[in-house]
Design goal:
- It catalyses: a (3R)-hydroxyacyl-[ACP] = a (2E)-enoyl-[ACP] + H2O.
- By secondary structure, this protein is of the alpha+beta class.
- Strands 1, 2, 3, 4, 5, 6 and 7 form a seven-stranded antiparallel β-sheet that branches.
- A hairpin with a 4-residue loop joins strand 5 and strand 6.
- The longest helix has 18 residues.
């Protein structure tokens, strides 16, 4: 499918953030502190629950992460929207990994369920993205996926119908 590897370390993800992995004008990850993963452990264009592609990534949790200090003082919790953003980031990364051209942007999400919290005592988040559709036509490049976030092995976020597109404009 592509010439890219099936796993990426933090240095690779930072190259993607600088536009060096998929090339200028193509899918990019944000730089820290908005980069919501430390490594991608597995990625495909034909794997996952639906056989349409998947991504598995990890994010190391430490008590000094920027969001714990401000959300909320005296009751530190990672904002749920950051976990959702991590899933969107990985969905767009998969599209770039496939070799598809354009800059990524989130289009929406069908359903989000938050059933747990990320506090400073957690050690690791594991993101799972399973594509239900991956579309590339002359006019549209888009991925639709379901996602799950686990904190130390416990499922805490479930997401259905995330949509990410690539645009060359």
């Amino acid at each position: 499918m592509t010439e890219f590897p099936r796993s990426f370390d933090r240095d690779d993800l930072l190259k993607c953030a600088r536009g060096e992995l998929f090339g200028p004008g193509n899918a990019q990850l944000p730089e820290p502190p908005m980069l919501m993963m430390d490594r991608i452990t597995d990625i495909s264009g034909d794997g996952g629950e639906h056989g349409k592609g998947h991504v598995v990534a990890e994010f190391d949790i430490t008590p000094d992460l920027w969001f714990f200090e401000c959300h909320f003082p005296g009751n530190p919790i990672m904002p749920g929207c950051l976990g959702l953003d991590g899933l969107w980031q990985l969905t767009g990364f998969n599209l770039g990994w496939r070799g598809w051209q354009g800059r990524g942007y989130a289009l929406g999400v069908g359903e989000v369920k938050l059933t747990g919290m990320v506090r400073p005592d957690r050690k690791m988040l594991t993101y799972h993205v399973d594509f239900t559709k991956a579309i590339q036509t002359r006019r549209l490049t888009m991925g639709v996926a379901d996602g799950r976030v686990e904190a130390d092995g416990e499922t805490i976020y479930l997401v259905k119908d995330m949509k990410v597109a690539l645009s060359e404009s």
